Amino acid sequence: MQQVELIVGSTLDQAVGWVAEMLHDRYTKAVKAHGRFDMAFAGGGTPRALYSLLATPLWRAKVDWSRVGVYVGDERHVPTGDPRSNFRMVRETLLDRVLVSQGNVHPIPTSTRLDDDAAAYEQTMRTTLATLDGMPRVDLMLLGLGPDGHTASLFPGSRALGETERAVVGVGPPDAPTERITVTPPAINAARDVVVLTAGNLKAGALAKLLAAEGSCTELPARCIGPLDGEFTVVCDLAACEHLDRQALRQGIVTRRL
Ligand code: 6PG
Question: Per-residue pLDDT tens for 26-42?
């Protein structure tokens, strides 16, 4: 049974601080091992606090961002300047404030047909990343968790949850609330490390189902996370833990309070 580490901070800021430390540790190891660190950034609102922390002078000094390959785990199929764009959020909170190498920054294209953009991003990932079991492999896949248990743009009941060949797909109603492009479960599980960062009592129900002994990926898409050759860490604040029942947790969960 795969081990899942659950890291609980008293606050989101404490949880974010831990993720930053972990990111720095994995960055250091990856650069030492293969000269670069490839990371897929999560969208939504929760990771904003992490990206803002990484953009502070203290953290800017810790990471040579020219060695970082920047990817996005999912994107709304909207123009790049649209306020709903995940990449725009990552750029404004972090990338505009650190010295990334533009050739290493890979936003998801959203200017042509949904499926063509998804296929183009898959091609980008496959030509720039290492692979595991035929899937492009990032060093760190950062994901969020929706109140319904979605992660990236993999929503309950989505046909994308059954994808086994493609690393990136386009999704839209009824599989997703709007047209989006997302990494698939095989691409998530090819990562060296997967971190789910979540916070707030609105996510407590989904987190309890994610970590429960029983459950289905179809109903709770984040349960599709299970790195083939990597670590799975869930980082949250206390509020997100309020429905956790220690007896009902699946085996292999190691909990650590910060
Ligand atoms: C998106 C994200 C999505 C997000 C969750 C949690 O495009 O919105 O990829 O999966 O991580 O919805 O979002 P919050 O962090 O805003 O709660």
Answer: 999 999 999 999 999 99
Enter the pTM of the model: 0.98
Q: Whose CA is nearest to atom 11 of ligand 1?
A: 144
Output the residue whose Cα is nearest ligand 1's atom 12: 146
Task: Give the domain range for residue 88.
Answer: 36-56+79-235+247-257
**How many structural domains compose the chain?**
1
Residue with the smallest CA separation from ligand 1 atom 5 is 146
* Mutational pocket test of ligand 1: of 108, 145, 225, the residue with most ligand atoms within 8 Å of the beta carbon: 145
**CA-based torsion, 211, 217, 221, 225: positive or negative:** positive
Q: Is residue 182 part of a domain?
A: yes
User: Residue 209 belongs to a domain with what CATH number?
Assistant: 3.40.50.1360
Q: Is residue 128 part of a domain?
A: yes
Q: Residue 125: count other Cβ atoms within 10 Å of its Cβ.
A: 25
Task: Answer yes or no: are the C-beta atoms of 212 and 249 closer than 8 Å.
Answer: yes
